[in-house]
Specification:
There is one protein chain. This protein is mainly beta. It has one domain: Immunoglobulin-like (Sandwich). The protein is about 10% helix and about 50% strand. A six-stranded antiparallel beta sheet has the order 3-2-5-6-7-9, with no helix packed on it. Strands 4-1-10-8 form a four-stranded mixed beta sheet, with no helix packed on it.
Length: about 150
C-alpha cells in the first residue's frame, strides 16, 4: 500500500512540475494607424517634422505622443478607452491641424493568460484643413492587427 501511495505521489509531482504557467504571446496594443500621402498622386509622403499631442479633457496639459519626429510617413495613436472620442493636434512642418476621431468601444477577450483589450469601431473622423486636404478611412475596425486605418492627404 505504501508503494502505491508513494508511486501516486511521485506521478502527481512529476505531472504538476511539467505544467508550465501559460504566458501571453499575443499583441495587446490597439492603435489607430495613420499614413500620410500626397493629395495629387496619393503616393506615400515622408513628413519632415511632426509633433502630435492628444487633447485630454480631464487635464490641462496635453499628452505628447510624437515630439519633433523627423522623416516619418505613418503614425500610430492610442484612442481613449474610457471615452468615445479622441482629439489630436498634429503639428506637421510647423502647421497645426486638429484630428477628431469618434468611435464606439468593445471589450475583446483574447485568452485567459492575456486577458482582454478594448477595441474600437470608427464612426466619424473630422479635421481642420490648414495642411490636411482630405482623408480616407480605410479600415473602421481598430484591434490588435497592424493595418492602416486612415490615410491623410496633404
Amino acid at each position: 500500500m505504501k508503494i502505491l501511495i508513494t508511486s501516486l505521489t511521485l506521478i502527481l509531482l512529476l505531472l504538476s512540475s511539467c505544467a508550465q504557467e501559460e504566458t501571453c504571446r499575443e499583441n495587446k496594443q490597439v492603435l489607430f494607424n495613420i499614413g500620410f500621402y500626397t493629395s495629387e498622386t496619393t503616393n506615400a509622403l515622408n513628413i519632415d517634422s511632426i509633433t502630435v499631442f492628444g487633447i485630454n479633457n480631464n487635464s490641462i496639459t496635453p499628452d505628447s505622443l510624437y515630439k519633433n519626429v523627423k522623416n516619418i510617413n505613418k503614425i500610430a495613436l492610442p484612442l481613449n478607452n474610457s471615452a468615445e472620442e479622441s482629439i489630436f493636434v498634429l503639428n506637421i512642418n510647423g502647421t497645426h491641424d486638429t484630428l477628431n476621431v469618434q468611435y464606439s468601444n468593445k471589450e475583446y477577450f483574447i485568452s485567459y493568460s492575456c486577458g482582454m483589450v478594448i477595441t474600437h469601431h470608427v464612426d466619424t473622423v473630422l479635421s481642420t484643413s490648414h495642411l490636411i486636404k482630405s482623408y480616407r478611412i480605410l479600415n473602421r475596425d481598430i484591434n490588435t492587427t497592424d493595418v492602416q486605418h486612415l490615410q491623410i492627404l496633404l
